[in-house]
Design brief:
The strands form 2 sheets. A 7-stranded mixed beta sheet has the order 6-5-4-3-2-1-14. A 7-stranded mixed beta sheet has the order 7-8-9-10-11-12-13. Helices cover 26% and strands 22% of the residues. The protein has 8 helices and 14 strands. The chain has 2 domains: 277 residues, Ribonuclease Z/Hydroxyacylglutathione hydrolase-like (Metallo-beta-lactamase, Chain A), CATH 3.60.15.10; 32 residues, no CATH class. The longest helix has 24 residues. The protein is globular and about 60 Å long. By secondary structure, the protein is of the alpha/beta class. Helix 7 runs parallel beside helix 8. Bound molecules: zinc ion (ZN) (2 copies). One zinc ion (ZN) binds next to loops.
């Protein structure tokens, strides 16, 4: 499986203001000369050493994840990241009206739907767009998104054929060579995470969640979402302090994902759904704080004479891809 993040931001698309970009470029120039560089040939070396928050950042598009195997493609959520994904898909069967698209919705908050009216394959006659959710009312959601006065093209005139599929909680669903099972997350409106499996490899998508149920007992029937996992994408909208201020807002901090990953022996974790109010520098600071937390957990285990499970983890960014 190849997993690609087309949108890593939460809540609202968050483009950089021109002023911020200008200031950032100015800082980079200053840094270049402060490092003692003078010539063009130093540019590549200087750029490759720059941290993500100073050069490129984490991206501003909202939730959209692509899962690809040798024969199948799945999309999770239709946030604004689905717009550039749609352009890429137009180079394949979708551009010829013979595309078969599968979009799974975790829930229907705007940041997970807002890209749908700009997903070009949906307008091409002949394409079949399969949409899935555990929540009933998926068709009503599409009727609301594609309706005047919110959008000029009503659902009936889209071109493609939309087929609605309701998933059963905790029941595997096979799509091509991929098997997907929904498990419930903790969010103010019902929200479902997905465990996706192929040939013994497991990808687990856990966004949006506050994960108020942490212990194995509390997670109960939803525990398999976190067990035997090769890659987990987890909600880290907030810093640890912010999760205390924003109880019941439905999002977590990286430290919570780290705890679960260490306990359940998850191999790799990517954190996303970054807060739209957070600058790239603030997200990088939250990542550094989480790094401190992770190291302190490793040290605590060592002091207790326990061999802690080491997790490979990082904060995700738009365009990031992971091969399993
Ligand atoms: Zn969200
Ligand atoms: Zn949400």
């Amino acid at each position: 499986m190849r997993i690609k993040l087309w949108g890593a931001r939460g809540s609202l698309p968050s483009p950089h203001a021109p002023e911020l970009i200008r200031n950032g470029i100015r800082e980079l120039f200053e840094g270049f000369f402060e490092c003692g560089h003078q010539s063009r040939k130093d540019i590549d070396r200087y750029m490759s050493d720059l941290p993500r928050h100073l050069f490129g950042g984490f991206g501003g598009n909202t939730a959209c994840i692509e899962v690809r195997s040798s024969e199948q493609q799945l999309i999770i959520d239709g946030g604004s990241g689905i717009r550039p994904l749609g352009y890429e898909m137009m180079a394949g069967p979708c551009g010829k009206g013979s595309g078969e698209v599968h979009i799974f919705f975790t829930h229907f908050h705007w940041d997970h739907l807002v890209g749908l009216p700009f997903f070009v394959p949906i307008f091409i006659p002949g394409n079949r767009i399969h949409v899935y959710s555990v929540q009933p009312g998926l068709q009503d959601v599409f009727q609301t998104v594609f309706r005047k006065p919110f959008f000029p093209v009503p659902l009936e005139s889209l071109g493609s054929r939309i087929e609605y599929h309701i998933l059963e909680p905790r029941k595997p669903r096979r799509v091509g060579d991929l098997t997907l099972t929904p498990y419930e997350l903790d969010h103010p409106d019902p929200c479902w995470g997905f465990r996706i499996e192929k040939d013994g490899k497991v990808f687990s998508h856990c966004v949006d969640t506050e994960c108020v149920r942490v212990s194995r007992e509390q997670l109960g029937p939803d525990l398999p979402l976190y067990q035997g996992v090769d890659l987990m994408i987890f909600d880290a909208q907030y810093t640890l302090m912010e999760t205390i201020e924003k109880v019941n807002w439905g999002h977590a901090a990286a430290s919570l994902g780290i705890d679960i990953a260490m306990r359940e022996r998850v191999k790799q974790v990517i954190f996303m759904h970054h807060d739209p109010a957070s600058s790239d520098s603030k997200i990088a600071a939250a990542e550094a704080q989480a790094r401190q937390y992770y190291k302190s957990q490793l040290r605590a285990a060592e002091r207790a004479g326990v061999k802690a499970h080491e997790v490979e983890w990082s904060f995700g960014y738009e365009g990031m891809t992971v091969d399993l």
